[in-house]
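Entry for the shared binder. Reason: the reviewer on the internal report wants the predicted structure included alongside the sequence.
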Amino acid sequence: MSRLLAPTALVVLLLGIWEIACRLLEVPVYFLPPPSAITVSLVERAPLLASSALQTFRMALQALLVASLLGGGTALLVSLSRSAEHAVRPLAVALQVTPVVAIAPLVLIWAGLDHPDRAVVALAAAVAFFPLFSGVLTGLKSADPDLERLFDLYGASRVQRLIRLRIPAALPFALEGLRVASGLAVIGAVVAEFVSGSGATQGLAWRLLESGNRLRTADMLAALVCLMIMGLGLSALVGLIERRVRAHLS
């Protein structure tokens, strides 16, 4: 509880300064609305924002699941062969450094213009893929060398070594990768929604675009608040899973 007190006090202080500055300086609402105007927008548009947040959250969660399966599965397969690792890792790095905005039009075409939600999930999964792949692969290679030699002594196969030694050793790294990937999945989903620009997904990114085109800055910031809450909620969920798994392992 004490850890929440300091950041909460800081947020309240900053919001108070923001509110007072906007009123004293008579800042136009379309340029920078005070927190009170954003609160009014949050209340008035609560059903619409909740529906859009649920849509974005659903796509981000689907992307995280896809990235977990592909990233973790690829790392497991690659860990069985050093040659496979040397072949796959550069491709994974190339995917990581390629801007999602650059490949978004192609993915939209491949997914079908009538199914922009598929493109959003695919793009968000691509953004979240590398932390999971890298984390799991690093964890699989971090097993205790003494235990590795013990498995050699007993003539364990690669699959036995993987299941009984390397996967348990990789779990903490995989959970850390999952924490990073959860934030990237939300970012990827929002960026992909922006690029699609059709409004068919009806997520929070579309609410941002819609409000921006109408110069309704308070509505834009209200949607941003929802995005931050959603990202924090997903991160907290992953953190809870991580703590439960670590407690079980210890």
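Summary line for the report: The chain has ten helices and no strands.
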